[in-house]
Structures are given as structure tokens and as C-alpha cells.
Amino acid sequence: MLALKKIMNKNKDWFESWFDTSYYYILYTHRDYSEAQKFIQNITTVLNLKKDDKLLDLGCGKGRHAIYLNSLGFYVIGADLSKNSIQYAKQFENKSLKFIVHDMRKPLKSTYNAIFNLFTSFGFFEDDNEDIAVLQHIKNGLKPNGIAVIDFMNVEKVLSSLVTEETQTIKGITFKIRRYVQHNFIVKEINFDADGKHHTYYEKVKILDLPKIKEYLNAVNFKIKHIFGNYQLENFDYKTSDRLILVLE
Fold it and tell me: Distance between CA atoms of 115 and 117, rounded to whole angstroms?
């Protein structure tokens, strides 16, 4: 484990390498986004967003959710640190849909009626202050009466049902996956052979329960308007809910 710790410390910003590879999208080829799209329909209705509102999908990846938000009639900016993902997403741009490369740890250059951070695109950073800075930038990026939505995992349920080992073969690549807890992070270690080389990548998401996230929110004076436990917008239960969805103002 000591050697692993050294590797992970050396590659602190794991997301900069893993999210920018083609292997990331191969591993998640079969991910079903239909439930998340239904969530977007539900949440935009609950928030009473107007068709001319300007929205930001922060941590948009290849733009799947930003594209769907745009299809509902909103002006949407998709922002992500991965240059390769943004380059791919740009093929879908139109007059009311744009994609930009942006590190969420840096201030936003525009303001929005609503900012979405979806599919656990938060809690990546070793330093709590960086996570708090992300929240501050989101808050500063809202127009008056603007709303932010953070869609995070429910760590209580994830930890209670953690699948420690699994193997998936996708498009001829066999991914050997291990999951474990290390230094207050849920770690997903991904090993595979491809293109004549052995590859090891990590996904690390901080163990943030509701009380801890509330500490972050209080640090930037963000107020919780709603808490939902799934994409059907049902009440949050720390033992049984699949998600921890926060609507902030």
C-alpha cells in the first residue's frame, strides 16, 4: 500500500490523465443516461427555469447532459478540464450551445441563471480548500436569484455496498477493477492491457456525507433549498438513497 500511496501522490491530479483518455469512454460505453435525462427534466421543471435562461454544465465531459439541456430549449455552456472531451463535444455546438475548457478550481468568466454539477463531478481534490473554492466559484457565477445543483453520490450507501473487485471485458479490453477506501477517498483502481502496454488509472472521490458537505457550503454562505435522494426527486435518506442531490441558492 505504501508503494501505491507514492504512485497516487505522484499522480495527484488523476482526473487530468484518466478523463482525457479514450479508455475512460470505452469502460463506460454501456452507461445508461436515460435516468439522468429524466432527472434533468424533473429538476428544470422544479426550478422553474425559463427557456431563455443561461445554464452551465460544469464538468460536462463529452457534453451528453449539456446537449440534452440544450434540447429542452436552454442556452447552455458546457465546461470541462479535459481538452479531448471538449474537442469531441464541439461538434454538437450551435447558436445556443457552446463548449469550453475550464478548470472548476478557477473563477468563472460569465454568470448563469443555473449551474449544474452532475454525475459526481465534485470531491476530487486532496485539499478541502480546493473543493470549497469550487463552491465559491459556482456561487460567484450565479446571477441574482440563480440556482446551483450538485448531483453527488450518497457515500453512506456506496460504502455499505462497495463491490471490491470485478472484471469487465469491453471492446476487446479486459478491465480489472478494485475498489477500496484510502485516506478518506473511495478509490477505484483500474488495470488493463491495451496497445501493447499495461495501464493503471485511478478514480478518487472524497467521502463526503451531508454534514461534511454542509461544512463546505457554510464556508461560502451557500444555502440549501432542496435535498433529494434520487433522480425521481424523492426525499433523501442517508441509508437507502442512491444520490445526494443538493439545490443551492
Answer: 7
